[in-house]
Amino acid sequence: PRAPFDPTATDVIDYEHLNFLEDGEQMELTMGLSYILQQSAPRWIQALAQRFSPITITLSNTTTKSVTTSIYDARKTKDSINFEDSGFTLIDISEDRATIDNVTDWRAQGSENPWQSADPRMESFQATLETRLLKLLPNATRIKFTSNVIRGGNKFGDQPAAIDGPHLDYTQNDTAREEFHKEYPVNENVKEQLALLGEWDTEEEEVVALLGLWKPVLMNNPVCDHPLAVMDARTFLAEDSSPYPIHINFLVFILHNLNGAIHHRPEQKWYYYPFQTENEVLVFHQYSKGTHFANPHTSFINPNCPEGYETRISIEMRAAVFEKKRKD
Q1: Pairing label, strands 314-324, 205-216
Q2: From residue 10, how far is each of 214, 284, 311 by CA, in Å?
Q3: CA torsion angle for 215, 136, 233, 210 (degrees, to 10)?
Q4: How far apart are CA 156 and CA 150, in angstroms?
Q5: Residues facing residue 272 across a β-bridge
Q6: How many CB atoms are closer than 10 A to CB 42?
Q7: How far apart are CA 212 and CA 203, in angstroms?
Q8: CB-based contact 320:143 (threshold 8 Å)
Q9: pTM
Q10: Closest CA to 115 of 231, 252, 230
Q11: Given a cut of 80, is residue 52 above it in pLDDT?
């Protein structure tokens, strides 16, 4: 039987289910239509999609491994956690509640794309976030939001929570990314890839980082069951990650991206913010140019939740950080 909820036990000690790639291994993931249908479609449609457009994982030999890992409460830890050194932080946006409440469609994009016009309410929300982000990034000249997605919802296009699989959405290896996209050309509508390949750089500015922003939405309680955990960037080394090709069929196009698979080391440290609310935004580094400063991340199954809590629904956004171009 499940243990009673203990509100004081917010450190998740010796969690047994995080899956890391074995050292020396390579992995490739192909996700068919079943991936984007599993949140919204009836079961019979999901079954057909899995039969004819399945999810497949290719491992060079075998192998990922589950590693017992502790995930610490970032709110109460005595460790020195700050955005500049650790790569992540939590922003309280409760004073901007009116801007949050003004967003009527969290699935809307804040910028133009081929399938919908920019939503002014989302643009306003992102402008509020940009003001906060520029305070965290004193050398930044501007922030440009790229795309956002809902995880855990039940509408078409919503994606499932990515549980127990530490990863980076983008490899830190710029050379490997350039080689990958020689084989799989960039889709001009995938803005993150354009940013990382230098297509957004100008004579004056360049993209120096890509941030992830994550918050709960459409919920009546804080997040408990599937919170997002992040690795302290100070404990993430270059050898802890391998390029990880993924291919996702989104019906209107196939996304080809070079992610980062994560290898385990005992020195790595993981944190999360328990009971994150809709007034809080977790900000972390997906990519940093030339510095290997990033936060591998994953959601996980929290074993200590109150009875009756709603399951997590979240929005994840990405934002490119520009600085003045460095002079050689």
Answers
A1: antiparallel
A2: 20, 21, 18
A3: 70
A4: 10
A5: 73, 229
A6: 9
A7: 26
A8: yes
A9: 0.91
A10: 252
A11: no
Q: Which amino acid is at 264?
A: H
| Residue whose pair of structure tokens reads 């967003």 in the numeric block | 103
User: Which stretches of the chain are assigned E, i.e. beta strand?
Assistant: 12-21, 27-31, 55-59, 64-73, 88-92, 140-151, 167-168, 205-216, 228-231, 241-249, 254-262, 270-272, 280-288, 297-299, 314-324
113 bridge partner residues: 116
Question: Most distant CA pair in the chain: distance in Å?
Answer: 63
Three-class DSSP category at 239: helix
Amino acid at 210: L
Between CA 222 and CA 216 the distance in angstroms is 8
Written as six digits, the tokens of 314 are 């979240």
d(CA 64, CA 261): 10
Cα distances from 133 to residues 14, 108, 152, 214, in angstroms, run 33, 21, 26, 13
User: For 310-323, what is the mean pLDDT?
Assistant: 97
pLDDT at residue 40 tops 80: no
Q: How far apart are CA 51 and CA 54, in angstroms?
A: 6
Encoded amino acid at 198, one letter: G
